[in-house]
């Protein structure tokens, strides 16, 4: 009954997206000195959620379930970033800013989950 609540599915998907994006950022930082490496990123969670259908309604398998297998398919190369003389487009400052944004997204997902759990506990305890 409670396992299909959209708020838990959305917060789980948001946390999974943050983890995937952090992985891409870590790869960018690891390749900061690799000649010809192009910085990569994945779409924001809100953009992925909008593209996936009608808001928070599950329309297909894997949709808003936390198991977002196609997040990596949405990776894009940042072709407009300035490159170094070795044609590397990774900027450590930009990657650090992205990392802070990902931490905020993950913290937000946990806060949504905790808040929903508190509401659920309060409603069950009053029954």
Attribute tags:
127 residues, mainly alpha, two-stranded antiparallel ribbon, 3 helices, 52% helix, elongated, Flag_bb_rod_N, FlgB family protein
Percentage of helical residues? Answer: 40-55%
Report the principal-axis shape: elongated
Beta-strand content estimate: under 5%
What is the distance, rounded to the nearest whole angstrom, between the alpha carbons of the first and last residues?
16 Å
Subcellular location: Bacterial flagellum basal body
Protein name: FlgB family protein
Region (Disordered): 54-90
Domain Flagellar basal body rod protein N-terminal: 12-38
Give the arrangement of secondary structure elements.
Layout: H1 6-30, E1 40-41, H2 45-51, E2 76-77, H3 92-125
Antiparallel strand pairs: 1-2
Helix pairs in contact: 1-3
Structure description:
- This protein is elongated.
- Helix content is 52%, strand content 3%.
- About 6% of the residues have low confidence.
- A two-stranded antiparallel ribbon has the order 1-2.
- The chain has one domain.
- It is mainly alpha-helical.
Q: Concise description?
A:
Helix content is 52%, strand content 3%.
């Amino acid at each position: 009954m409670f396992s299909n609540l959209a708020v838990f599915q959305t917060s789980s998907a948001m946390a999974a997206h943050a983890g995937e994006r952090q992985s891409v950022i870590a790869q960018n930082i690891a390749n900061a000195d690799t000649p010809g490496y192009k910085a990569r990123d994945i779409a924001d969670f809100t953009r992925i959620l909008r593209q996936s259908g009608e808001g928070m309604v599950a329309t297909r398998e894997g949709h808003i379930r936390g198991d977002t297998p196609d997040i990596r398919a949405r990776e894009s190369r940042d072709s407009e970033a300035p490159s170094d003389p070795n044609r590397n487009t990774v900027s450590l400052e930009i990657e650090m800013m992205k990392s802070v944004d990902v931490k905020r997204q993950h913290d937000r997902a946990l806060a949504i989950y905790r808040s929903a759990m508190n509401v659920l506990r309060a409603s069950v305890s009053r029954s």
